[in-house]
Amino acid sequence: MDNFTYCSPTRYIFGKDTESQAGQLTIGMGSKNVMLVYGHGSVVRSGLLDRVKKSLDEAGVTYTELSGIDPNPTDDRVYEGIDIARKKSIDGLVAVGGGSVIDTAKAIALGVPYQGDFWDFFAGKLKAETALPVGTVLTIPAAGSEGSGNCVITRKEGLHKISLRTDFALRPKFAILNPELTVTLPPNQTAAGIADMMAHIMERYFSPTTDVEVTDRISEGILKAIIEEAPKVIANPDDYQARANIMWAGTMAHNGICGCGRVEDWVSHAMEHEISAVYGVTHGAGLAVVFPAWLTFMANHAPTKPAQFARRVFGIINHDDKSAALEGITALRGFYLSLGLPVSFGMLGIATPDIDLLVKKLHENKGEVIGGYYRLTQADTYEIYKMMVNGEI
Ligand code: NZQ
Ligand code: ZN
Q1: What pLDDT, on the 0 to 100 scale, is given for residue 319?
Q2: Which residues, at least 6 apart from 147, have a Cβ–Cβ distance to it below 8 Å?
Q3: How would you classify the pairing of strands 150-155 and 160-165?
Q4: Reported pTM
Q5: Cα 106 from chain centroid (whole Å)
Q6: For the segment 283-308, what is each residue's pLDDT rounded down to a tens digit?
Q7: Nearest to 220 by CA among 314, 141, 341, 294
Q8: What is the DSSP string of 216-263?
Q9: Would you say the CB of residue 199 lies under 6 angstroms from ligand 1?
Q10: What is the model's pLDDT at position 318?
């Protein structure tokens, strides 16, 4: 096990009606005049936005709205938000929505106190240390941004989708997690969120670091719980207990606990970010296509951990590591399909993917050789993208 520091400072407020605490929590993070960020209307239709506003009003918090944030959010809305926030002397942000809304709020929070171009942080020119406080009311368990220090924004020019990772600067001050808010999700978004949270665990699980038994078992336990609970929420979207378990799993998947003491991988995410940047697909659906292909490559080149994954998570009882790994991948694909997720480019709606372009952008953004579990060259990532065309093993 490697040395590590683990600090997840976000205050998690979990359960029914917890959005009524938004106002007091906002005061608690030191903000009195916030930017209220949300998407294309799901929070308006459900009445959630009004309840959050009521809570802010009761606490004496004033707010300016920034709405219409798109999935796979782009830099133009961040520039707009920074400009408005400065003009209105905003002292914090409250994001009501999913990863796209939360990440837009985080990027604005980072950009407001910085005199230069906020993209400098995403371009790796300097380290993110200071940001306005951000609070969240989560409506979709998926990206895990409510507890992560990460922020993913696409630069429209060149379609560069970049994930900025900070230790603390961008961790939200609070995350309101009310499972009831997720019952309005369309089934494809519920399923994509499940694929995303599983991927957040697996990116950390597939690690070259050995002797991380506690972190491995935490990860396997959360994965097994997701595999048990997911079919329940798909079959019965109103199942509160299953929704609650899925929501908590999504947060735990990405707040760092599953990465303690080891090197992480993150190639599947990098590969998916190129797909969603170029083709605009839902991130979690893209991951359901990428991960089995990446794992298939690993079964051929570094099968030890994929075999452990297959045996411990899917109960594969098998022989040699490679066969066990391959059976695990079949089980994973079957699970995704059972949730209605795609497992190939075609199923994702991309009939003729431009693999040369994806590989080029991937290595431009991430480097010549990439990956924590196994180092991948351009020829390797090309092969993995190719496998996604038919979703073959
Ligand atoms: O815009 P509205 O109308 O709100 O609709 C949204 C949106 O269309 C809808 N939705 C959300 N909650 C709902 C709902 N519809 C009905 N009922 C509800 N309760 O769902 C759609 C997707 O929302 P989005 O915020 O895009 O989903 P998600 O949370 O999956 O976020 C995806 C973004 O997060 C990034 C992804 O790359 C992508 O850009 N990620 C961020 C990470 C982070 N910051 O740590 C890590 C992840 O790996 C990921 O990369
Ligand atoms: Zn993700």
Answers
A1: 80
A2: 8, 10, 12, 171, 172, 175, 251, 252, 254, 255, 256
A3: antiparallel
A4: 0.97
A5: 14
A6: 999 999 999 999 999 999 999 999 99
A7: 314
A8: HHHHHHHHHHHHHHHHHHHH-TT-HHHHHHHHHHHHHHHSSGGGTTS-
A9: no
A10: 77
Residues 123-167 pLDDT 10s: 999 999 999 999 999 999 999 999 999 999 999 999 999 999 998
55-86 confidence digits (pLDDT tens): 999 999 999 999 999 999 999 999 999 999 99
Does position 327 have pLDDT exceeding 70, yes or no? yes
Distance separating alpha carbons of residues 389 and 352, to the nearest angstrom: 8
* Cβ 100 vs Cβ 73: under 8 Å: yes
* Residue whose C-alpha is closest to residue 225's, from 251, 264, 204: 251
C-alpha distance across the termini of the chain, in Å? 32
From the list 269, 245, 64, the residue with the least C-alpha distance to 150 is: 269
- Contact (Cβ atoms closer than 8 angstroms) between residue 201 and residue 222: yes
- Cα(50) to ligand 2 centroid in Å equals 29
What's the CA-to-centroid distance between 319 and ligand 2, angstroms? 32
E strands, the chain, in order: 11-14, 33-38, 62-66, 92-97, 134-138, 150-155, 160-165, 174-177
Closest-lying ligand 1 atom to the alpha carbon of residue 153: 39
d(CA 2, CA 7) in angstroms, rounded, equals 16
The answer to whether the CB of 135 falls within 8 A of the CB of 25 is yes
- CB count, 10 Å around CB of 238? 9
Concatenated DSSP letters of 267-330:
HHHHHHHHHHHHH---HHHHHHHHHHHHHHHHHHH--HHHHHHHHHHH----SSHHHHHHHHHH
State which ligand 1 atom lies nearest to the alpha carbon of 71. Answer: 26
* Residues pairing with 164 in the sheet: 151
